[in-house]
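Design job #97: recover the sequence.
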């Protein structure tokens, strides 16, 4: 749009100079020519053109604002997804432990002293098991068992257990009155011992007939989630909010004021976004009346929601600077255009004057030409100061304008663009230099056809040097298009890093629990479709705690990284190795060709992991216990297969450790004799 105004200004000056030369060389009072009659109409036409230019610039500024909001929402959504994934992994680790303990007391194995009997639930054996499981979960404060009467029976913090009644707590009231098997997350409460705020993750215990037998729960301090939020790179003006899916606030970061227990307003659009499975909305501010844009991200399968809010003022700060600069430059250009139109009008009004009047008019036209030259300089400055590359192709398919950024982004020679070549000539040069070598065949076909308007208005492609550019095409009235070229390599790299972090363990670079679940579900789906098998190996390092306690967490972390390398070295390329948390790992063998190959892999794992390590100059030795389950014989879904592999792992540990065991179903009970 700016270049159209520039071209119009040049045409106006050229026409005025032609009129001056004609008047200077003709009679003192020449008759009105067609050009002069056109000159009398130039004022309304010029004002209309200036008004259209102002409107186009205003629309451009508004679009920049919308783009700034869209980019902020995309970044907020990505960060919200990353944090929601971390929260889901943390809660899932606790839930898995609760589920395991629930199964231990509900269906104990042969010789297992645990049961649903109140004496067993309050036994020292269960207390020791709670203490051991709590040590595996750094995010957990306590593991607790509450009886069917609401009395505290057992917990991991101390022995003997104090007499405390918990029948008034929301988790007990809910689980004792509702036969629900899902994980229940309590309202935030202040710890009676130390005053810190925490939530309880609770599961219902049931007798074989389905009657209520008690509650098994884990206390998680809210500070654990705040530390997790602190580990995510929060953009300026941003804040995280962790809530239950019913709108109860658990914690907010960063915030010096305690928000636990507050409830989102009933009319907030937040509830619609949660019901829709996540989204975005604009908030006038729940806590401080500051307008924010909020990304809403549910936390996996749990009744939790993560919000990432960014203040509108922060999002639009850079846009406001750009809008102010564009508004100032536009005002100058419009003023210059009006001045030029007034000068032309005065020139037309003085056509009947004498030679002196004509000379003065010529002088005014010369001044107008200089003003137009200055205007052109301002326009060139604007084009070359843009962050984006810009190319204008006119209705005749000639490259009328190409700013310096476009030539730099596309590596086009200035001498080629200086002669305003056809757009096809520019494409021919780019084909010769291999510009489109990394584009896919569909995009190459579109580019080869030089179809400016038939293809996508926005697309991305990778240049030969690896940079990614975004190409936008906007059609212009009267024919021709404007194209912008934006280098988005940094943004794409950042998105790739976020995706990698969301699906990989930071320490070992193995697949994390989220990626493991996705891969296992996909492997089972493909196995069911193709009639193949899937093997699942669940591994837990033996004696790792002794190494960790003796040499410290740094050595322990380095040891886990080396164990991961040895595992990767012995599996197939199609296998997946994942770290499930702590010193637990899992291996998925898709298209498993019978048990022989899986058992051979288990033996290789025992061999390579029991070889002593050298970590930081220190010797370290660990073993490994392995539980194995197969699809479809040991389970038809991911949850069952994982549970049976975990049961086989515990069988291996009970039978001496540093060995492997395959899942064996519990024998059916022997019927009593009459």
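Job complete. Output follows.
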């Amino acid at each position: 749009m700016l270049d159209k105004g520039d071209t119009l200004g040049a045409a106006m000056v050229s026409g005025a100079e032609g009129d001056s030369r004609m008047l200077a060389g003709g009679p003192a009072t020449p008759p009105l020519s067609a050009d002069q009659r056109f000159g009398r109409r130039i004022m309304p036409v010029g004002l209309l053109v200036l008004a259209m230019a102002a409107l186009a610039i205003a629309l451009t500024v508004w679009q920049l604002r919308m783009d700034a909001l869209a980019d902020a929402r995309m970044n907020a959504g990505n960060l919200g997804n990353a944090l929601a994934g971390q929260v889901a992994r943390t809660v899932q680790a606790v839930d898995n432990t609760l589920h395991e303990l629930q199964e231990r007391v509900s269906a104990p194995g042969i010789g297992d002293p645990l049961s649903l009997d109140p004496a067993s639930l309050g036994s020292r054996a269960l207390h020791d098991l709670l203490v051991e499981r709590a040590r595996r979960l750094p995010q957990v404060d306590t593991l607790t068992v509450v009886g069917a009467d609401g009395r505290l029976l057992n917990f991991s913090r101390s022995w003997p257990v104090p007499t405390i009644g918990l029948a008034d707590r929301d988790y007990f009231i809910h689980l004792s009155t509702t036969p629900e098997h899902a994980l229940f997350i309590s309202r935030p409460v202040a710890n009676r011992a130390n005053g810190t705020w925490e939530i309880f993750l609770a599961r219902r215990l049931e007798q074989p007939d389905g009657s209520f037998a008690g509650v098994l729960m884990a206390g998680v301090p809210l500070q654990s989630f705040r530390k997790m939020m602190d580990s995510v790179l929060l953009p300026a003006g941003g804040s995280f909010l962790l809530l239950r899916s019913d709108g109860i606030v658990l914690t907010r970061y960063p915030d010096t004021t305690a928000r636990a227990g507050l409830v989102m307003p009933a009319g907030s659009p937040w509830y619609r976004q949660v019901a829709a499975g996540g989204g975005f909305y604009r908030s006038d501010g729940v806590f401080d009346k500051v307008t924010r844009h909020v990304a809403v991200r549910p936390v996996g399968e749990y009744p939790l929601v993560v919000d990432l809010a960014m203040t509108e003022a922060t999002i639009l700060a850079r846009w406001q600077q750009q809008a102010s600069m564009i508004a100032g430059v536009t005002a100058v250009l419009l003023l210059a255009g009006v001045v030029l139109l007034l000068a032309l009008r005065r020139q037309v009004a003085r056509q009947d004057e004498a030679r002196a009047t004509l000379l003065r008019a010529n002088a005014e036209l010369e001044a107008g030409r200089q003003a137009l030259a200055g205007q052109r300089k301002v326009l060139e400055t604007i084009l070359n100061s843009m962050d984006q590359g810009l190319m204008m192709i006119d209705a005749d398919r000639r490259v009328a304008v190409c700013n310096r950024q476009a030539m730099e982004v596309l590596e086009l020679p200035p001498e080629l663009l200086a002669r305003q070549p056809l757009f096809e000539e520019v494409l021919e040069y780019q084909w010769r230099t291999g510009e489109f070598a990394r584009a896919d065949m569909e995009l190459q076909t579109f580019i080869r056809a030089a179809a400016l308007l038939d293809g996508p208005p926005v697309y991305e492609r990778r240049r030969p040097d690896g940079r990614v550019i975004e190409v936008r095409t906007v059609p212009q009235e009267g024919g021709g298009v404007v194209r912008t070229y934006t280098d988005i390599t940094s943004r794409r790299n950042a998105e790739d890093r976020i995706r990698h972090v969301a699906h990989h363990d930071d320490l070992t670079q193995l697949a994390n629990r989220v990626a493991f679940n996705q891969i296992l579900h996909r492997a089972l789906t493909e196995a069911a479709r193709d009639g193949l098998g899937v093997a699942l190996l669940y591994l837990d390092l033996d004696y790792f705690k002794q190494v960790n306690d003796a040499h410290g967490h740094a050595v322990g972390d380095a040891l886990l990284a080396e164990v991961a390398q040895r595992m990767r070295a012995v599996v197939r390329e199609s296998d997946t190795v994942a770290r499930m948390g702590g010193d637990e790992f899992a291996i998925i063998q898709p298209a498993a060709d019978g048990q022989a190959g899986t058992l051979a892999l288990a033996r290789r794992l025992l061999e390579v992991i029991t070889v002593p390590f050298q970590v930081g100059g220190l010797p370290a030795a660990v073993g490994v216990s392995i539980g194995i389950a197969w699809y479809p014989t040991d389970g038809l879904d991911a949850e069952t297969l994982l549970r049976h592999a975990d049961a086989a792992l515990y069988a291996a540990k009970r039978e001496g450790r540093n060995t492997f065991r395959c899942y064996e179903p519990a024998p059916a009970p022997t019927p009593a004799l009459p």
